Amino acid sequence: MKITRTAVYWLFICCLPLLIITSNIRWGVSEIKLYEYGFDKYHISQKTGIDEVELRIAAQHLIDYFNLNADSVQVTVVKEGEEFELFNEREIVHLQDVRDLIQLDYWVQRGVLTFMVICGLVLLLWLKCSWRKLVKGLFWGSLATLGLVVVLALWAIFGFERLFLLFHLISFSNEFWILDPAKDYLIMLFPGGFFYDAALFGFGAVVLEALFVCGTAFGVLKATGIGREVK
């Protein structure tokens, strides 16, 4: 019974970093303001000749596509008074792969949340653990999240290009992600700097959320007279 309790407890702890990270990825994918921030900072309208309204339409369509609210990723925009289809065949294939990866993140998020709840119920109802055990698990899980994200953030800051390349090599089984910034609008709209900024925003959000969980858990433990249990 003790081995089972320990195993379930550590599974509960390990779920928290995955839950926080996948939730923030989900937020970033669907946050139109993040796209608009990139368009504005990197002067995408001036570089592509597509005005800001049309860029927002394209971004919203991508969000809808990633969230399965649009059947096709192709979108028609207006440039210099003429309509044209924004993405070529290579970009379309890559965006299909990106959508599959995003949907995998969503499934992982839902699965981890479900598994975490199950682990919590097993600890409370079957293994007869105190609710304080779960709070302690949240404390250690948030610390694990902080440690993981700090390592990734430092890697991104000092070697983002290598990290970005490694991500693509691991995540995609083809080379359709290799695009030409001179003619492919996908990479014109989202240059490397955009992904660097998005990664830092994501890391910052994860750190803040982990600190909140950590501080709250510690506060609850200390307020109930068991601050020593987090050691």
What does this structure look like?
- There is one protein chain.
- Helix content is 76%, strand content 3%.
- The chain contains eight helices and two strands, in the order H-H-H-H-E-E-H-H-H-H.
- A two-stranded antiparallel sheet has the order 1-2.
- It is elongated and about 70 Å long.
- The two termini are 23 Å apart.
- The mean pLDDT is 93.
Number of DSSP E strands:
2
Q: Poorly predicted ranges (pLDDT <50, ≥5 residues)?
A: none
How many DSSP H or I helices?
A: 8
What is the makeup of the main sheet?
2 strands, antiparallel
Oligomeric status of the shown chains?
A: single chain
- Looking at the structure, what is the overall shape? elongated
Rg (C-alpha, Å): 21 Å
Instruction: Note the gap between the termini.
Output: 23 Å
Q: Structural class from helices and strands?
A: mainly alpha
Total number of distinct structural domains: 1
**From N to C, what is the helix and strand string?**
HHHHEEHHHH
Strand arrangement, largest sheet?
1-2
- Fraction of residues in H or I helices: over 70%
Whole-number average pLDDT?
A: 93
Bin the strand percentage.
under 5%
